[in-house]
Design brief:
By secondary structure, the chain is α+β, with helices and mostly antiparallel strands. It has five helices and four strands, in the order ββαββαααα. Strand 3 and strand 4 form a beta hairpin.
Length: 103
């Protein structure tokens, strides 16, 4: 699904996915990104809500499992209204309910 819009790289033990913007949410994700320092590098990573939405758009089984893990680990700090609103706009509510309802 992401062929042609994603490049996967490895930097030492770190895996990095570079994804070309393809919809309004991707542009919002770029504006909301957070700056972190890792392994002596400055990196920009998405907010957890945006990472979940990006993985839901990819729709692979592994991505759904990742989404559940991200949600469970960070749900108390996440903007759940933002997550739901974008899931609805992207027509991903079934996937959203699967992730937030999974135990």
């Amino acid at each position: 699904m992401l062929r042609g819009i994603m490049v996967r790289m490895r930097m030492g033990s770190m895996h990095v996915d570079l994804i070309r913007s393809r919809d309004r949410h991707d542009h919002v994700t770029l504006r909301r990104r957070q700056k972190v320092r890792a392994s002596g590098l400055i990196l920009f990573i998405p907010q957890p809500e945006d990472l979940i939405l990006t993985k839901l758009k990819a729709g692979r089984e592994r991505d759904l499992e990742d989404c559940i893990g991200i949600f469970e680990a960070q749900k108390d700090q996440m903007d759940l209204k933002y997550l739901w609103r974008w899931a609805a706009r992207l027509r991903l509510l079934d996937e959203y309910h699967y992730v937030v309802g999974a135990k």
